Amino acid sequence: MSARDDLQRTLADIAARDGGLKSFVAVHDTAGAQRELDRALAHRGALQGLAVGVKDIFDTAALPSQYGSALFAGHQPRLDAAIVQAVRRAGGVVVGKTATTEFAFLNPAPTLNPNAAGRTPGGSSAGSAASVAAGLVPLGIGTQTGGSVIRPASYCGVVGFKPTFGALPTPGLKPFSWSLDTVGLFTQRVTDMARWASALSGRTWTSQGAKPVVGIAWSYPFGELTPSARLALETARDKLRAAGVTVKDVDLPAWVADVHKAHDAVQGWEAVRALRDEFEFHADQLSAVLRDYLRDAQEVDDRAYEQGQATAAAGRGKLQQLFDGIDVLLAPSAPDEPPAGYGSTGASTFNRAWTLLHVPCVSVPGAKGVNGFPMGVQVVAPVGEDALCLRAAALLQASFGH
């Protein structure tokens, strides 16, 4: 089947199935998609002709960019975001924009969960995770400021990759918290993730090596393990050991709790400034949850912000302590199975510290919670060790037989 046939099949599939899923908010018509394909075929990259969904928090010159907000209804940027340009340079075809929560915060998107009926797909990258989970596109682009890649990947049962901070470009992303906002990706398989992420980043994240030594933390200063989270970690431990991997129990150092807490101050201070105009001049067009958050976050003063950033910097300086004796750490991707209903996107309890530390993380599907719904297992590696993180994640996915 030719690339043009593949593209037509993808568009037809989205038209036929996404009405009930609501993972896309804008899709190219046939002519627009063909233009995208022509541009893609002019490049000979690893994504040659691959259909890609891009979270509607990124600017796109050929499709509206509304950031999940009524305030920006019909907004049409003149330039593409840097990650969109990277997709095209690698030969990928942007077929549409995927649903996001309002400004990538908490107000839920309309997207449903294809692998957990009646339960949230998570946020804020709900559309990208769900579209990949449903098989509408093989690659989705998202962002994470708290847990917006790892958590929806867990809830939807797909691979979610949050690289080292800054490894994928952010220009053209509508910012919420500029020292936290991280471009991330969704796929079905880690092996595909490694190849495609390498192409988008210009780095080599497909290296081979010895089996990593894996640590698992069973106690967390910022949240107790639920039965489903414990079951997922136990499943991962047993599968890895059966595959000949050394797995050790580890204790998290106390300073990880300080980093977790500092995330709130850093995000709040930056969000107030990133959305200053929207809050000051268009508050009536914001959701109540965002209005209340921005109002309360104004109480975060410069000193608290500076202390938060200092705590984060100190934590990054102690990462060797965190990974002493192990290569990667396993932790829950989410506190529990996807919550029932669509009024909440879940909690980023097990993501915020890693996001502020700027370390790479991969949510690996294959485990289940006590009720049989998806539970991702999060692989965490030191800053800059994205290849190691992906290699360990691929080993874990293979051990799951997923």
From TrEMBL:
GO terms for molecular function: catalytic activity. PANTHER family: GLUTAMYL-TRNA(GLN) AMIDOTRANSFERASE SUBUNIT A (PTHR11895:SF151), TRANSAMIDASE (PTHR11895). This is Amidase. Residues 25-390 form the Amidase domain. Signal peptide: none annotated.
